[in-house]
Amino acid sequence: MHSVGSSSRQTTIRSSSFDTRPSSAGSPEGSSIEDDDLVLALMLQLEELGIEVDTRKGKERAGSRTDRNAALTDFKDTLEGLSTFHSDRRMAQSMAVAVHQDAVAITELVAVEAIAVRDREQVLREENMSFRATLATDFDDTASVFTDFEQHTNLPSYVFEYHSEDDESGPSSKPQIKGIQYYTGRKITCSICVTSVPHSNTIKCPCNHIYCSDCLRKYIQNAMKDESMYPLKCCRLEVPNQILSQILSPREYQEYINKGIEYSTANRLYCANKKCLKFISPDMIDEVAQAALCGSCGTAVCTLCKNEEHAGLCRKDEGLEAVMLAASQNGWRQCFKCQRMIELQHGCHHMTCHCKAEFCYVCGVEWKKCNCALFEENRLYDAAAVRVDRDAVVPLAPVIRAERIEQVQEQIRENHNCTHPGRFEKRTAYRSWGYQCDICNRRHWKYILVCPRCELMACEECRRFRV
């Protein structure tokens, strides 16, 4: 208690009867209630102080400033400063909680709108119509969509927190500094989605390409579904497991490792249970009993016919026999490693399967272990014709087209073993039918990358993760 005497009355001004420091309450709601009480108490003291000042007017010598007046003025300034601080703090907390709760919904709505615009653009391009998207939102400057908010561990808490170890200089500002840096700090452009994202939300691959964690996570998941992308590489350099473990959850990372075991197994066995169909690890196979046990559902599988374990001889697989008959009639070839069925439409006889096995399409043996011809002239002509027609802006005259096909045939003969060294050329000229990737066969509208040596067309994804 601080008492200030007066000749006319005794006024008691309550000063530090409450703690003006912010509470260390754990929840934003509890902190907000305490702030409301604190601001109200400060306002009451300011009101009482104002009454005291008003009653003293005219009772002092003109132009003089007594110690009492100085004390009252300083105390008033202190109370006003505390009141302003806690009012601002309450507003900041409210804004922070709103950002924390609504950020996911807002960014997802923006992403949905962006997808709708791009889909409409693609449709109009297919109809050979011009299109220019005009939006109030600049999607390139929008933060990445948080599909799983909890996995963004670099995202700081936006709610002010105070700790008991805070000294007299005030509470720790580290959470606030991190929050400000997340939105105002250095941004880096993702090499895939071309979105500016905070530096803390990016990953740098061994080839020095930088990706946002959302894009790289998507390609990791694609690699677990597409054997041609496993293990995940960028520019032929494998992405270290240390990086992958930072992006994936422990369960997802283990799934990625298990996929490596599956893809490296030559004669793979899968569960015969239609509701399971999971890969059976080689260590679960009993070669003597010619049976295996599914580690996921416990189903016993016959290693010969790959159906559920049974007594006696294996029954005929009519479906498999029909496929093998069709393969024989159409000249299809089966990969010697993973048993996939492959059809060659045009090009050379050097085949590279999804499992990365290389073999001759004529005899089916491992590549470079036979004396079969490299090309069949009909297929070579077809491959050249496809490339000539693909690159023609307008239909070519028959004579010019024939000459161009002959030139391309010679180029294919010379560059059939191209390893695509150096940089790919980027073609961006608008074409109403777009560009088709020679690897994934998907059509792309903005641009395509072309090997300057063999003229292979590849999309950005295939160039980095498949070629």
Automatic annotation (TrEMBL):
One Pfam family matching this protein: IBR
Skewed-composition ranges (Low complexity): 1-17
Catalytic activity: [E2 ubiquitin-conjugating enzyme]-S-ubiquitinyl-L-cysteine + [acceptor protein]-L-lysine = [E2 ubiquitin-conjugating enzyme]-L-cysteine + [acceptor protein]-N(6)-ubiquitinyl-L-lysine
One biological process term in Gene Ontology: protein ubiquitination
UniProt keywords, alphabetically: Metal-binding, Repeat, Transferase, Ubl conjugation pathway, Zinc, Zinc-finger
Name under which the protein is recorded: RBR-type E3 ubiquitin transferase
PROSITE patterns: TRIAD (PS51873), ZF_RING_1 (PS00518), ZF_RING_2 (PS50089)
Statement: the UniProt record of this protein carries the keyword Chloroplast: no
UniProt organism field: Orbilia ellipsospora
Residues in RING-type domain copies: 186-381, 190-234
GO terms for MF: ubiquitin protein ligase activity; zinc ion binding
Keyword Transferase: yes
EC numbers on record: 2.3.2.31
Region annotation Disordered: where it falls in the sequence: 1-34
Biased amino acid composition, Polar residues: 18-30
